C-alpha cells in the first residue's frame, strides 16, 4: 500500500509542471493571448508573443514580470468587480534599466543573481485595454450602464496592433478558454481593444481651439490687469485720481482685486449672514453625494455600496437630492427678498403702472451674463479633459461627455438641457443650472407682476405650486412607486429624466423660497414670539426636515401613500429650510444663527457656483487617472471626500477670479 502511495506522489510531482504549464492559459489572459497567437501571420507581434510564452514556461524573470503586470480575474466578481486591470505603471516600468536605489547587501530579489538580459524584456512593451461583455447571471445587476462590461488590462509586446489582438481574443472567447467562463457560466463578447497612446488628433476641432484661445487671452488679461492694478491703480486710489475706462476693464481681470472681493468678509447689518453658512454646508453635502455617485463607473464593490445605502445613516446620501432643493429654496428666497427690499426703498410715486418688460428682460440678461461665461468655459475645459482621458485612461464614463458635449453643448448654452433625455447630457450635473435659470425667469415674472397685481401673482404662484405637487404625485403613482422604490437607487438611476431633473418636478422649493422671502420682508426683520410658540415653530420646522430625510427608513407604504409623500416631500423640506432662514434673520435661532453667520463661510459661499461646476469634473478626473478600481469603504471614502472638497474649493477660487468675477465686474462697468 505504501508503494502505491509513493508511486502516486511521484507521478504527481513529475506531472505537476506539465499541468501547471497547460493550465496557464485558463487563468492568465496574457498567457492565453501568447499561446493562441499561432494564427497570426508572420509578424514581429507573433514572434514576440511566442518569445514571451516560452519565457513564462521557462520562468524567465522578465516574462514573469510581464505576466504579473497583466490583468487576470479578480475576487468579487459576484459583487461587481469587473476590473481586471493589472498594473499599467509596472508594465511601463519594466523597460527602465536603472536599478532601484536599495541596499544591495540586503537585496533578496533574485534579479541580483541573474543576468541583465534575463531581467529586462528584449522588446518594447505596451499596455492594452480590452473591454468585453459578459452574460453571467451570477453577478448582481442594477440596471445601470456598463455594469456587464469587464475591463481587462494586458501588458504585451509593443509591436502588436489592436487588430491582431482582436483576432486572438475573439478566438479565446469563442473557445471558452478562460476557466472563469465555465465557473461562472459566462460567455464573453469582445467590444473593443485599444492602447493608451494619445495621438492628439481629438484636439483639432473649433470648440477646443476656441476654449484654449479664450483661456490664454484670459490669463494674459489677468497678468496685465494684476500688474496694472498693483503698480498703477493702488497708487491712484491713494491719490484719489480718476481712472479711464480701459484701465477699469483691465482691473476687472486683476487677481489682486478679485481676491479681495472674494475674501472680503464685511457685510451690511441687514444682509442675510446665515445664508453663507447654509450655502457652504449645502455644497459640502452635494460634494459628498457626488463623491459616491460618480464612483459608479470605477467601483469594484458595487453590491456592497448598495447594501450600505440601505442603512439609516446612508439616508443622507440616498435622499441627497434634498441638498439641491436646499439651493433651490435659497435661490428663490434671495430673489424674492432682494426684490421686495428694493420695492420698499423705492418711492411709490415713481413706479410705472404697467408691467416693466424692460426691467424684466434686463434682469434675465444680467443673470445670463453672470452665469454663462464661466459655464461655457468649464464645458470647454471638460471636453478637453474628458477627451484626453478617453485616449489615456483604462476607464470609460457611462455618460460619455466627450461625445455628448460636442453634440449637445448648445442645449446647455440655452439652459434647456434638463428637458432632454439623461443619456444625452453634456455634464450631467448641469441640469441644476437650467432648472434655476427657468425658475428665475418664472419667479422674476411673478415678482414684477406682483407690483401691479399682487393677488393675481400670488394666485399664479400657488397654482404653480399645486400643479407641481399634483404632477409629482401622478408620476409617482403612474410608475407604481412605493417607499421601497424610492430608496432603491437603481429605480432613480433609470428614471433621472422623469423624476429627478424636469423643472415641473423641482420648482416647489423655489416657490416656497419666494414666499419665505416675502414673509421676511413683511416682518421687517422682527418676529417676537412667546417661548412656547417659538419652540413649537422650531419643532415643526425641524420635523419637516427630519421626517423628509429619514422618515421613509424601514417603512413600507402603499403606492397611493407614497405618491402623497413624493408630492409634498420637497416642499416640506423647503418649509423647514425657510423657517431656519427666517429664524436666523429675526434673531430667533441663537447658536445656530451664530454658527451659520460665521465670517469664515463668506468666501467659501462666494465660490459655490464654480465649486458646483468643477466638483464632478475633479472627481471623475481623479478616478480616471487611477490605474486601479475604486473600493468604497466608509473611512477611506470620507477621507477622499475631504481631499476632493479641498481641491474643489481651491480650483473654484482660481475659476472664480479668472472666469466669473471679471465678467460680473465688466457688467457693472457697462451698466454704469
Spatial extent as radius of gyration: 31 Å
Q: What is the rounded distance between the termini?
A: 106 Å
Fraction of residues in helix: 55-70%
Percentage beta strand: under 5%
The whole-number mean of residue pLDDT values reads 88
Signal peptide: 1-20
Keywords: Membrane, Signal, Transmembrane, Transmembrane helix
Domain Nose resistant-to-fluoxetine protein N-terminal: 42-197
Transmembrane segments: 206-232, 278-296, 316-340, 360-382, 437-454, 461-479, 503-521, 533-553, 559-583, 604-624, 644-666
What does this structure look like?
- It is a single chain.
- With 672 residues, the protein is mainly alpha-helical.
- It contains 29 helices and four strands.
- It has two domains: 19-99 and 111-197, no CATH class; 213-671, no CATH class.
- The protein has helices at 2-27, 29-35, 44-57, 61-69, 88-93, 116-119, 162-174, 179-183, 206-239, 245-251, 255-263, 274-293, 302-308, 315-318, 321-345, 357-392, 401-413, 431-450, 454-478, 483-487, 489-494, 496-500, 503-523, 531-550, 559-585, 590-596, 601-606, 608-625, 634-671; strands at 83-84, 125-134, 149-157, 188-195.
- A four-stranded mixed beta sheet has the order 1-3-2-4.
- The model is unreliable at 11-16 (pLDDT under 50).
- Residues 1-20 form the signal peptide.
Q: What is the topology?
A:
Blueprint: H1 2-27, H2 29-35, H3 44-57, H4 61-69, E1 83-84, H5 88-93, H6 116-119, E2 125-134, E3 149-157, H7 162-174, H8 179-183, E4 188-195, H9 206-239, H10 245-251, H11 255-263, H12 274-293, H13 302-308, H14 315-318, H15 321-345, H16 357-392, H17 401-413, H18 431-450, H19 454-478, H20 483-487, H21 489-494, H22 496-500, H23 503-523, H24 531-550, H25 559-585, H26 590-596, H27 601-606, H28 608-625, H29 634-671
Parallel strand pairs: 1-3
Antiparallel strand pairs: 2-3, 2-4
Amino acid at each position: 500500500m505504501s508503494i502505491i502511495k509513493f508511486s502516486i506522489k511521484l507521478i504527481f510531482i513529475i506531472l505537476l509542471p506539465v499541468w501547471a504549464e497547460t493550465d496557464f492559459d485558463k487563468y492568465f489572459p496574457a498567457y492565453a493571448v501568447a499561446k493562441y497567437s499561432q494564427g497570426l501571420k508572420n509578424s514581429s507581434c507573433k514572434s514576440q508573443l511566442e518569445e514571451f510564452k516560452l519565457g513564462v514556461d521557462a520562468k524567465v524573470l522578465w516574462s514573469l514580470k510581464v505576466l504579473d503586470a497583466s490583468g487576470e480575474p479578480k475576487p468579487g466578481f459576484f459583487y461587481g468587480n469587473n476590473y481586471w486591470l493589472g498594473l499599467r505603471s509596472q508594465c511601463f516600468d519594466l523597460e527602465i534599466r536603472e536599478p532601484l536605489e536599495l541596499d544591495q547587501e540586503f537585496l533578496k530579489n533574485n534579479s541580483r543573481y541573474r543576468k541583465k538580459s534575463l531581467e529586462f524584456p528584449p522588446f518594447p512593451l505596451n499596455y492594452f485595454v480590452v473591454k468585453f461583455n459578459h452574460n453571467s447571471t451570477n453577478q448582481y445587476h442594477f440596471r445601470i450602464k456598463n455594469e456587464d462590461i469587464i475591463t481587462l488590462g494586458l501588458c504585451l509586446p509593443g509591436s502588436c496592433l489592436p487588430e491582431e489582438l482582436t483576432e486572438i481574443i475573439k478566438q479565446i472567447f469563442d473557445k471558452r478558454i478562460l476557466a472563469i467562463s465555465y465557473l461562472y457560466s459566462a460567455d464573453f463578447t469582445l467590444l473593443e481593444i485599444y492602447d493608451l497612446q494619445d495621438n492628439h488628433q481629438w484636439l483639432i476641432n473649433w470648440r477646443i481651439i476656441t476654449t484654449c484661445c479664450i483661456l490664454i487671452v484670459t490669463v494674459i488679461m489677468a497678468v496685465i490687469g494684476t500688474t496694472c492694478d498693483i503698480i498703477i491703480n493702488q497708487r491712484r486710489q491713494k491719490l484719489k485720481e480718476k481712472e479711464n475706462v480701459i484701465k477699469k476693464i483691465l482691473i476687472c481681470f486683476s487677481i489682486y482685486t478679485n481676491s479681495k472681493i472674494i475674501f472680503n468678509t464685511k457685510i451690511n447689518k441687514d444682509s442675510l449672514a446665515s445664508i453663507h453658512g447654509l450655502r457652504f454646508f449645502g455644497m459640502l453635502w452635494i460634494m459628498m453625494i457626488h463623491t459616491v455617485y460618480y464612483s459608479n463607473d470605477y467601483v469594484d464593490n458595487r453590491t456592497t455600496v448598495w447594501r450600505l445605502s440601505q442603512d439609516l445613516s446612508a439616508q443622507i446620501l440616498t435622499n441627497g437630492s434634498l441638498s439641491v432643493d436646499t439651493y433651490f429654496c435659497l435661490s428663490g428666497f434671495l430673489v424674492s427678498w432682494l426684490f421686495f427690499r428694493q420695492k420698499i426703498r423705492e418711492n411709490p410715486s415713481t413706479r410705472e403702472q404697467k408691467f416693466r418688460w424692460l426691467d424684466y428682460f434686463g434682469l434675465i440678461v444680467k443673470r445670463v451674463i453672470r452665469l454663462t461665461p464661466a459655464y461655457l468655459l468649464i464645458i470647454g475645459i471638460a471636453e478637453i479633459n474628458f477627451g484626453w482621458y478617453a485616449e489615456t485612461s483604462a476607464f470609460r464614463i457611462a455618460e460619455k461627455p466627450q461625445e455628448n458635449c460636442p453634440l449637445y453643448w448648445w442645449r446647455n448654452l440655452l439652459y434647456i438641457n434638463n428637458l432632454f433625455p439623461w443619456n444625452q447630457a453634456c455634464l450631467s450635473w448641469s441640469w441644476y443650472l437650467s432648472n434655476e435659470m427657468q425658475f428665475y425667469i418664472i419667479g422674476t415674472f411673478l415678482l414684477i407682476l406682483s407690483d401691479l397685481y399682487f393677488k393675481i401673482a400670488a394666485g399664479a404662484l400657488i397654482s404653480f405650486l399645486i400643479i407641481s405637487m399634483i404632477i409629482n404625485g401622478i408620476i409617482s403613482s403612474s410608475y407604481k412607486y412605493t417607499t421601497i422604490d424610492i430608496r432603491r437607487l437603481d429605480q432613480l438611476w433609470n428614471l433621472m429624466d422623469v423624476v429627478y431633473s424636469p423643472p415641473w418636478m423641482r420648482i416647489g422649493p423655489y416657490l416656497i423660497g419666494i414666499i419665505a422671502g416675502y414673509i421676511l420682508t413683511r416682518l421687517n426683520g422682527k418676529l417676537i414670539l412667546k417661548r412656547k410658540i417659538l419652540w413649537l415653530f422650531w419643532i415643526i420646522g425641524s420635523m419637516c426636515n427630519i421626517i423628509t430625510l429619514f422618515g421613509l427608513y424601514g417603512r413600507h407604504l402603499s403606492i397611493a401613500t407614497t405618491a402623497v409623500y413624493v408630492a409634498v416631500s420637497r416642499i416640506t423640506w423647503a418649509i423647514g429650510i425657510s423657517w431656519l432662514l427666517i429664524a436666523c434673520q429675526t434673531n430667533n435661532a441663537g447658536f445656530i444663527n451664530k454658527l451659520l453667520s460665521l465670517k469664515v463661510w463668506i468666501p467659501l459661499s462666494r465660490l459655490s457656483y464654480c465649486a458646483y461646476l468643477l466638483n464632478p469634473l475633479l472627481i471623475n478626473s481623479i478616478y480616471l487617472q487611477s490605474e486601479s478600481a475604486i473600493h468604497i469603504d466608509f473611512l477611506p471614502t470620507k477621507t477622499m471626500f475631504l481631499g476632493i472638497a479641498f481641491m474643489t474649493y481651491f480650483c473654484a477660487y482660481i475659476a472664480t477670479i479668472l472666469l466669473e468675477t471679471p465678467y460680473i465686474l465688466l457688467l457693472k462697468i457697462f451698466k454704469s
